[in-house]
Amino acid sequence: MSYESNAHSPYERAIQRVPEGLRVYLAVLPVTALVGLFILYPIARAIYTSFFERSLLHPDQSTFIGMGNYANIWSSAQIHQVIVNTVLWVVVGSGIAIVIGFVLGWLLYEKLPYVSVASAIVLIPWVLPRVVGASIWQFMFSGSQGIINELLVQLGVVDDYVVMLGDPSLSLWPAIVGMIWRLAPLFALLTLTSFQGIDEHLYEAARMDGATPWEAFRYITLPLMRYNLAIGFLLMLIYNIRNFSMVWVMTKGGPGYSSTTLPVMIYRSAFVDFNIGFASALSVMLFVVLLVFSYYYIKVYDRVQGEF
Questions:
Q1: Which terms are listed as keywords in the entry (predicted)?
Q2: What is the value of pTM for the model shown?
Q3: pLDDT of residue 51
Q4: Torsion angle of C-alpha atoms 8, 13, 17, 23, degrees rounded to 10
Q5: All domains of the chain, ordered by start, with CATH?
Q6: Could you give the CA distance from residue 190 to residue 211 in angstroms, rounded to a whole number?
Q7: Alpha-carbon distance 176 to 170, whole Å?
Q8: For residue 201, how many C-alpha atoms fall within 13 Å in the half-sphere facing its CB?
């Protein structure tokens, strides 16, 4: 018997002992182990911790309180404002980013020369590190030093400098502006690629039949782009609802809870108030919301795959 056969025989004998129906799963066993270690275990641990009262200052001491943390979420004085902030953050921010991104994508497709160079320039807000982008907007919206305040004063919109990041009624909106600036280019690129995937002969045939630009847009562009736009919209929602850095860098969720979104509240509960149990319950709630959006994203994606 050769050296090579001796080297492989123990492995082959071990494989032979595995039932034939289970051998197919051996190839995916390492990946499954990694998924379980880095994804499933943290999720299970967060769910488990959410049933305990536990402080980060004393991680070895915990008290089982069942659904107490979940009850505390809805009895919290801040949760209603946090939910409203999160809805505004996700719906308004995503909606405006999609509209601006769609217009930018259309301009890149129809008007601008050197599309590849223009696309690279448009993507700069997206490729910048999140903290860098948030810091830029924090400086721009600062009091007397910020360019936004200076422009508003020079244009006569306001009489004096407004500390927007320190005003409870305004503090969330600068962060929304920064988030739109970051996400609109991504949707613009998605829109551009969707336009480029439409056969030009369809538009030529529509023009020959006397279709107006609006009719061509309504009956050709939108139907052919609807799934790509739906996927982009769902990705925006998934990204925004878990976005943390823009709000935290610009306002840290303040003043008070005026600009706090759900991810920021999770961070503050865990690493400012040191309440790990309550933060875990909030994380589970956020996880469920993300599961819902992810479910619809997969359904739309599968429908797209089925049509091609």
A1: Cell membrane, Membrane, Transmembrane, Transmembrane helix, Transport
A2: 0.82
A3: 92
A4: 20
A5: 10-64 (no CATH), 77-305 (1.10.3720.10)
A6: 26
A7: 11
A8: 0
